Amino acid sequence: MRKGFIKRFFSVLLSAALVTLLFAACGKTEAPPETVPTVPETTTEAANPNVNPLTGLSVRAEALGKRPVAVMVENSPAARPQWGLSSPDVVIEGLAEGGITRMLWLYADAADIPKVGPTRSARHDYVELAEGFDAVYVHFGGSVYAYDTLQKDGVDDIDGTKADGKYFARDKSRNVAVEHTAYTTGENMQKAITEKGLRTDIKEANAYPFTFATEKRTLSGGSCQSVLAVFSNSYKHTFKYNAEDGLYYNYMNSSEMKDANGETMKVANVLILYTNISNVAGSDKGHVDWDLSGGNGVYISNGTYQNITWSKGTASTPTAPLKLTDESGNALQLNTGKMWIGFVPASNSSATVIA
């Protein structure tokens, strides 16, 4: 009896265990296969919400929605190498008088301005271009026509020859005439803007002067490994493409154009805008006037080029922004990065060489 009981007892236990395992197996849910977390794609805006409106690249959050600063810089032989030549977001260059050029250096963020100069006197065409960007205009003196424009249009400016001279300094270490020695800094410009009580928020109509492509473009005109732009017999720029960094290096009259620190000026975008230039009636110093109503041009970037058109306005609409359009009349899609804009005499358009 006892052996039969024990045998039946263990038989019951074994059956119970099997039933338990069966129910456990039936109720068990299979674990999902291990997956690698996916990161959602982000747009340029999401990844970089602080976009510089002059380059399409990053800018300090504090600079968003603020007016740019436009600094007048000379380009005569005695002024070279300039202080800060490689620093501007945008360089605008064109004829002043006597076949020489001057430059307007644009910065979206005044805090980015290093020691820059030599700062030189204003010309009315540069004033009108600065107005199109709603920029604070920085200069050291000016022609009578420039001062007339500044006063007539009520331009916010910082003038080194007047009470604003305290925001400038002179560097006499290069043994050149005194007119080639003035400079300023971003720190001084920020101080001037604050102390003069200048408006800092940019006007909506001027806030986004350029349109930038979301991806790097190859332009429709064909290859452009170098381009020659001729202002005059003494002022010729050749921009040479470097495929390693995708930038165009600036050569002035065949010599590499370097800043005071030895860095070559280089940009992602080169724009040659042709304009009719005439002598200012009654000027005894050879002052010239650019036709800023519009014209044709060439856009060079990413080792390629395309033909474009441009427009701005007339003296009666000085605050009108510069507009760049493609062959179809649509807003020109620029590649992101710094740029050089040359307002070249239309009479020299045939001297432009794309290779």
Brief write-up:
This protein has 355 residues and is of the alpha+beta class. It contains five helices and 23 strands.
Weakly predicted, low-confidence segments: 1-47
Q: What is the helical fraction, as a range of percent?
A: 10-25%
Question: What shape does the CA trace take?
Answer: globular
Head-to-tail CA distance between termini: 111 Å
Classify the beta-strand content into a percent band: 25-35%
Average per-residue pLDDT, rounded, comes to 89
The total count of helices amounts to: 5
Task: Jot down its keywords.
355 residues, 11-stranded mixed sheet, 6-stranded antiparallel sheet, 23 strands, 29% strand, disordered N terminus
Could you characterize what this model shows?
The structure is a single chain. The chain is an alpha+beta fold and 355 residues long. The chain has helices at 2-27, 44-47, 124-132, 144-153, 186-195; strands spanning 69-74, 90-95, 101-107, 136-139, 157-159, 169-170, 182-183, 211-212, 222-223, 226-232, 235-242, 247-252, 255-256, 266-267, 269-275, 277-279, 288-290, 294-301, 304-311, 323-325, 333-334, 339-345, 353-354. A hairpin with a 2-residue loop joins strand 10 (226-232) and strand 11 (235-242). The termini are far apart.
